Amino acid sequence: MIDFKDFTLYIRENSDSAAAVRECLGAELSHTEDGAPLAEGFTLSLSDTANLTFLAVSKRGGKIGVDAELLSRTPPPGFSSVFEWTDLEAYCKASGENLFALAKNPPDLSKIPDIEITRITTHGCAVSVAEAPCASPLIKP
Predict the structure, then answer these.
(1) What Å distances lie between residue 47 and 44, 67, 134, 141, CA to CA?
(2) What is the mean pLDDT of residues 8-37?
(3) Any idea where the domains of the chain sit in the sequence?
(4) How many CA atoms lie within 13 A of 65 on its CB side?
(5) Mean local confidence (pLDDT), 113-132
(6) What are the distances in angstroms from CA 37 to CA 15, 28, 66, 108, 137?
(7) At 89, is the pLDDT very low, low, confident or very high (cuts 50, 70, 90)?
(8) Which one of 29, 56, 65, 114 counts the least CB within 10 Å of its CB?
(9) Cβ(124)–Cβ(72) below 8 Å
(10) Helix (H) or strand (E) holding 54
């Protein structure tokens, strides 16, 4: 567990998402119709890569997104680093935006108000956590 001011990041090895939510939060994992993870009483996001599960839980109750990729991964075309990709995917999870639509013409995430992105390097992975405490121009209500 890595504790930040506005969120907590849990990391589990050899654990699926449902088991990680049970172990870390004592809650059962379910999903919205569009596939977003849900656990009663928590605002959370999940990412799986290699044998690792990353679980980000908001302390503020705002929307949150997490993405993790191995640092050794080659970034997708049009992205200069793995972090650029994990930033975008975490942002899309927090905002509800379509990842593949935005990947064609990625926005400058540093210019979007009310979005905070935290980058972490751990367990050989690039990890991005995006928080959207308020509505932003690209976030649909």
Answers:
(1) 11, 5, 23, 24
(2) 94
(3) 2-132
(4) 22
(5) 94
(6) 16, 10, 12, 26, 23
(7) very high
(8) 114
(9) yes
(10) strand 52-58
**Are the CB atoms for 129 and 56 separated by under 8 Å?**
yes
The edge-to-edge listing of strands for the beta sheet with 63-70 is 63-70, 125-132, 116-122
Band of residue 106 on the pLDDT scale cut at 50, 70, 90: confident
| Residue 98 contacts residue 140 (beta carbons within 8 Å) | no
pLDDT at 133: 65
The secondary structure element, H or E, covering residue 67 is: strand 63-70
What are the tokens at 31?
Answer: 């999903």
Side-chain-facing half-sphere of 37: CA atoms under 13 Å = 27
Tokens (6 digits) for 37: 């993870």
């939510």: which residue's tokens? 21
Structure tokens at 107: 């926005």
